[in-house]
Amino acid sequence: MSERTSRIGVAFDKARADGRALLVGCMPAGFPTVEGSIAAMKAMVSAGVDVIEVEIPYSDPVMDGPVIQRASDIALAGGVRTRDTLRIVEAVAATGAPVVTMTYWNPIERYGVDAFARDLAAAGGTGLITPDLIPEEAGEWLAASDAHGLDRTFLVAPSSTDERLAMTAAHCRGFVYATAIMGVTGARSQTSQAAPVLVSRVREVTDLPVGVGLGVGTGAQAATVAGYADAVIVGSALIRCLLDTPDEAAALTALRTLSAELAEGVHHPTP
Asked: Which residue of the set 3, 50, 64, 119 is catalytic?
């Protein structure tokens, strides 16, 4: 299966034809509750988010910054399980938006790699982003994703050598995730200066779309990143809308407002 036959690949093709990037919005499964996370993700789609990234909450999220950690802790304290994530994926995929799952590897090993791939595909998920799994150690996942027609997205960083970029991209399907800054996730006051260079380097070794994550929090920043990347990935800024506003209705309003601002920026990139 190539990226051209995946749901997320079709979304990238359409965006390219329209001369724009995709907006990928991230939210932990089960935050603030299972039903609340479904409502939040549907609100993001209705406000213009193109792709939803559902993060499986994990107790030791080595890459996530304090905002995502706090949201994940709330979800875990509420008892969310991997099966709940699959139900959330199914509910959000029903909107028609592509849904990709981001997860650390331990929960997938506990669930069973092939079983998870089977159940994720059945729920309508497009694939996995795996921040702590490298291609050299991903044999079981490579086989399972092939067997069940799922995309696989590995991460590259500014520190990656040219050889490692080529190897990692060769094992990706759907898109490549370029981490724009070194360190943990979180909105920044300025977008990374290393990101355009990294995207250019990735494009020298693959024709796959390149998504840039880590640091975007405003429409203006999103427009800047959309000027050179195929997808702009936003998590902490969207999650903060729910963390900072206890009232559910007001939180969803804030989430829709920011989603619309980010979508406007991504869909009208800065040259």
From this structure: 64
